Amino acid sequence: MRxxxxxxxxxxxxxxxxAMLANMASSLxxxxxxxTTLAKAKALRxxxxxxxxxxxxxxxxxxxxxxxxxxxxxxxxxxFGPVAAKIADRPGGYLRILKLMNRQGDNAEMAIVELVDxxxxxxxMKADKTAAKKTRRGRVKKEEVVVKTExxxxxxxxxxxxxxxxxxx
Length: 169
What we know:
Strand content: 5-15%
């Protein structure tokens, strides 16, 4: 049983898996989008998101730490340059995994892995939705309606009961 074991070994030895994930992460950073199997995409997310978080702090130590994982100077330069600038205010969730159709040869589940802030098509759609969002209701806006309320003060007069009328006589 695999209780508490979150790492997917992907049917590979540890050095092969480490090299494969490093290459995939470098390709993702350089190209902003890659296509792979769903299992590899999920493993890549666990591998790459901490590296992207490290890129927010542009220090020599964090650059060397990221380089020890990625092994490609161009990918590190790209990560600490334009990628870090775009994800600076994002608290997490830097990667998006979109499922595709199964691969024809072996029926493997395929997926696209992309950096969230670099998909211009989705960003433009999001901007269009917020800009063109209109309601189709027939109500008048609240600012245009002026409601006047009046408070009516009523005077309370004591009502004579039988006990009060007996004592008064």
